[in-house]
TrEMBL record:
It comes from Chaetoceros tenuissimus. GO terms for biological process: cyclic nucleotide biosynthetic process; intracellular signal transduction. The keyword Transit peptide does not apply. InterPro entries: A/G_cyclase (IPR001054), Adenylyl/Guanylyl_Cyclase_3/4 (IPR050697), Nucleotide_cyclase (IPR029787), SBP (IPR006059). Residues 890-901 have a biased composition (Acidic residues). Keywords: Membrane, Signal, Transmembrane, Transmembrane helix. This is Guanylate cyclase domain-containing protein. Residues 1-20 form the signal peptide. Residues 876-888 have a biased composition (Basic and acidic residues). CDD domains: CHD (cd07302).
Length: 901
């Protein structure tokens, strides 16, 4: 395991720098109240937590632990480790029955392996329900590359690691050289300084660039970061290490050879050749950092942590006004090359998530009390309301990982911006940090670091010695590529191709690979045995075949309905038709096919289980839509209610929470409430709209009228199908509903029992224009009581009032109109509601009279402006992104749409 725990693998490893600092860190925001902190105040009195962290973070972690003790009452125990023993310390503890550590500081790259061993707790639900955590404020690349494994969350990420570029503005743009956006730009800069000898104020030569090139350092991460734009152009699922099917290393590809040539050029124009004593073994990152600070380099590449500390010290190093920060350059795409994610100027960027970043994982084998306290400390460190100071501090070694950490840098008066300015940044550099961070972590072509068994054997032992030989001129580019390919194939053979491929495809988000040759030899042997048997019994089989042919021919005349279970299919009388459809399913498929396939399986299983429960009949499915029939309107409505209720309780793939039409939102709570309990779910996962209509069986389709339906037996499927105006109307009612809403016709409403309505929340929608339906259709909105108050942002088009669109929604029971929503309407809305109900000639006279009395009683006491009644409500709480169904959506100050990611 020495390779896995080699010194400085993590990219935040500044031990020598940190240990030289005086331990005088004081968090000025330690006592500030945030939702995260209030949710855990005094919650863990006397609970001991042992935390594994790196020694160079000791000062910073001591301050954080002390403040957490004061907040929660927990007792914090330290377990610092060095970078050389970090991996082994975690591994040994995970393999113990319970382990000593409660909370592990870990690398994102190590999460899959330790989670597969059962050492890390699955915190997927905890994260989504944690008060104030705002999980989707964390950048997507960091959520996947640091915290997740097999679509579950196993760690709380505290920073993200990529390779940034720091360069001397006075030696680039001020010299008339191009801003280094591509490696072609970099080559131009390097050529300039090779031809134009330049010296610093100490008389030392200035080199084009400097970066780590020594083995057992961070050189392997820098190498893959430089190579990534050459190897990945098609998005994060492409990967830069192996062919996803054959597991052949990419080192045998033309793109890898091009990357090798470019990187060799960079090295030959760096301080690598400035090594004067002994054998050239490359340079450690600390040496190259000192060279840059000494004015010997124009361009410099490293992790955010070291670069952050260098910018904070720029004034002391004499670089005021001279340092610029930028994303690592990309590759200029050729005209015949497909680069769908390239920038407007044709540059393919592929930010490399080197090692992922730092994260904290909970020991799954500890007592529940300890697990909850350990998770609380991880969430405390990740607090979106306070972590801005942590990521700005040059000694924290936590780097920006949240959207708010960078979006706020556009304004120098924000707390986030002031924190960086207080630590020595110049105001002109904050937009650079914003661009660089967002370019790295929000790029759709970001590259995940290698997360397979023995990753260091590939990246370090299988790569670095061979690169150094090439840089020293001992091997050619082609020879180096072949040596690396052979070394990588040897590692794959050691761990097993199938196992490595499963790990590799899983973290790229690809489904398991099915080998077309699996079982082929066994199938051949079975075929040979079958042939021998056939030859030995040819005559008996021939006779039997003739007899079977006769039997089958007879059976075909008798079998009519038995190829499909049609016992619950309505065959006469009353027929209720149910249509379902997933809102924005096309966009969901285009966004993430893998997650959507899993989600569709969940969706289909839920609906089919309820079809069986209510003895209904699945007529057909078209895409992700269901057509269902039943002879009982009560069953139709109860089935629809259960669909809405069961869908919200499913364990959906986490990716759905980031999509507009499947994000998570909660019911609002009174603003003055003191509870810290999470609010009730309003939406979660796929949102299904449902329409229900009913009619009577008509044998002669030519005579079918509104309210009638023809039932036909399909000779092909051996099932029943349903046709006529009723079916068309049911489909159009479903099409008019919003995702997560059930709408039923007045015919269905009149037919269902008091028992069903007492278990439902029914609202009057009114008469609607429906495509392909000549007359206005009066409909109701129905939801289970548990989802009462679910909000739909959009409009319905009224048949009775064609010149207006309205979002008025009034809820009713069988006996009376409820005033919960009516009392919060404006006078204009109330009067409009009255006029519409009257114009629609509602037959529910008692309900109309009750509503009229209520409206007249309230109108006189209302002003023309909006007035809220009762407890003032918070806006609807949303996780992810919420998008209205209609382009004509209107939002008000009372119901803003809060955008997350």
């Amino acid at each position: 395991m020495k390779g896995l725990v080699r010194l400085l693998q993590c990219g935040m490893l500044l031990r020598s720098y940190a240990e030289a600092q005086v331990c005088n860190i004081v968090d000025p925001y330690a006592l500030e109240s945030t939702p995260v902190r209030e949710s855990m105040r005094s919650k863990h009195m006397g609970v001991e937590i042992t935390v594994k962290y790196l020694t160079f973070q000791d000062c910073f972690m001591s301050e954080k632990m002390r403040n957490f003790e004061q907040l929660t009452g927990a007792i914090m125990k330290k377990s610092p480790t060095t970078t050389a023993t970090w991996y082994d310390d975690i591994l040994q503890d995970v393999k113990k029955e319970e382990g000593f550590i409660d909370l592990y500081g870990t690398f994102g790259n190590w999460v899959p392996y330790f989670a597969s061993l059962g050492g890390f707790r699955d915190i997927s639900d905890d994260i989504l329900n944690a008060v104030g955590e705002d999980w989707f404020d964390i950048m997507p690349a960091i959520r996947q590359g640091v915290a997740s494994y097999k679509e579950k969350v196993y760690a709380v990420p505290l920073d993200g690691d990529v390779i940034y570029m720091l360069y001397r503005k006075d030696l680039v743009e001020d010299k008339g050289l191009p801003t280094p956006r591509s490696w072609d730009d970099v080559k131009q800069i390097l050529d300039y300084y090779k031809k134009n000898k330049t010296y610093n104020d100490k008389g030392q030569p200035v080199y084009g660039n400097c970066f780590a090139t020594a083995a057992n350092d961070i050189a392997d991460k820098i190498f893959w970061a430089l190579a990534s734009p050459f190897l990945q152009t098609g998005g994060k699922s492409q990967g830069v290490f192996f062919d996803t099917e054959s597991m052949d290393p990419v080192s045998n590809s033309p793109e890898f050879l091009e990357a090798l040539e470019t990187i060799d050029f960079l090295v030959q124009h760096s301080t690598f050749n400035n090594q004067t004593s002994g054998e050239k073994k490359g340079q450690m990152w600390q040496e190259t950092r000192a060279q840059f600070n000494n004015g010997q380099c124009v361009l410099y590449y490293n992790y955010p942590g070291p670069i952050k500390s260098m910018i904070s010290a720029q004034e002391a190093n004499g670089f005021s006004g001279k340092l610029n920060l930028a994303p690592l350059p990309g590759k200029k795409c050729r005209e015949d090359e497909r680069c769908p994610y390239a920038s407007e100027d044709g540059v393919n960027y592929a930010p490399f998530l080197a090692s992922g970043g730092m994260a904290y994982a909970v020991n799954s084998r500890k007592s529940q009390e300890k697990q909850e306290a350990a998770l609380a400390f991880a969430l405390y460190l990740s607090d979106p309301g306070a972590s801005f100071w942590d990521v700005a501090h040059p000694s924290s070694f936590f780097d920006p990982l949240r959207l708010r950490h960078t979006t706020s840098l556009a304004n120098n008066s924000t707390r986030e911006a002031k924190a960086f300015l207080d630590f020595g940044w110049e105001s002109r550099q904050l937009p650079m940090l914003k661009e660089t961070t967002e370019m790295s972590f929000l790029n759709k072509n970001y590259v995940l670091d290698l997360r397979v068994l023995g990753s260091e054997k590939y990246q370090e032992a299988g790569t670095m010695p061979h690169l150094i030989k090439m840089w020293k001129g001992e091997t050619s580019v082609g020879e180096t590529a072949k040596i690396i390919t052979d070394a990588w194939n040897g590692v794959t053979e050691t761990f097993g191709l199938k196992q490595q491929r499963d790990f590799y495809r899983d973290y790229l988000g690809l489904p398991p690979y099915i080998d077309p040759n699996d079982g082929l030899e066994e199938a051949r042997q079975r075929l040979q045995r079958l042939r021998r048997i056939i030859l030995s019994v040819t005559i008996p089989i021939g006779v039997l075949a003739i007899l079977l042919t006769i039997v089958v021919a007879k059976q075909r005349h008798t079998i009519k309905y038995h190829t499909r279970d049609v016992r619950n299919a309505p065959k006469a009388g009353t027929v209720a038709i149910i249509f379902t459809d997933i809102e924005d399913s096309t966009a969901l498929w285009e966004t993430n096919k893998h997650a959507m396939q899993k989600s569709l399986d969940i969706h289909n299983n839920v609906i089919r289980s309820l079809i069986d429960k209510y003895e209904a009949y699945e007529v057909k499915t078209v895409g992700d839509s269901f057509m269902i029939a039943t002879d009982c309107p009560n069953k139709a409505v109860m089935l629809a209610n259960d669909i809405q209720e069961m869908l919200i309780s499913q364990d959906w793939p986490l990716e759905l929470a980031t999509m507009p039409s499947s994000c998570i939102s909660y019911f609002p709570r009174p603003r003055r409430t003191n509870t810290v309990e999470p609010p009730r779910l309003m939406f979660k996962g796929l949102r299904v709209r449902i329409g229900v209509h009913m009619g009577q069986h008509q044998h002669d389709m030519s005579k079918a009228q509104d309210g009638e339906i023809q039932i036909l037996h399909d000779k092909v499927s051996k099932g029943f199908d349903y046709y006529g105006p009723v079916v068309n109307t049911a489909a159009r009612i479903e099409d008019a509903a919003f995702g997560g809403q059930t709408m039923i016709s007045k015919e269905v409403y009149d037919a269902i029992s008091e028992e069903v309505t007492s278990q439902s929340h029914v609202g009057i929608v009114g008469g609607l224009d429906l495509r392909g339906v000549t007359e206005s259709v009066f409909v109701y909105s129905v939801l289970p009581l548990s989802l009462r108050g679910r909000k739909f942002h959009g409009v319905y088009r009224r048949k009775a009032s064609s010149d207006s669109l309205t979002t008025v929604s009034m809820w009713t029971s069988r006996s009376s109109i409820l005033t919960t929503d009516v009392m919060s309407l404006t006078p204009v809305e109330l009067q409009k509601g009255m006029k519409q109900l009257q114009a629609q000639n509602v037959s529910l006279k008692e309900e109309l009279q009750t509503l009229k009395m209520q409206l007249e009683g309230h109108i006189s006491s209302l002003h023309d402006d909006d007035i809220s009644f009762g407890e003032e409500e918070e806006p609807e709480i949303k996780v992810g992104v919420e998008k209205a169904k209609s382009n004509e959506q209107e939002t008000t100050e009372d119901e803003p749409l809060l955008n997350g990611e």
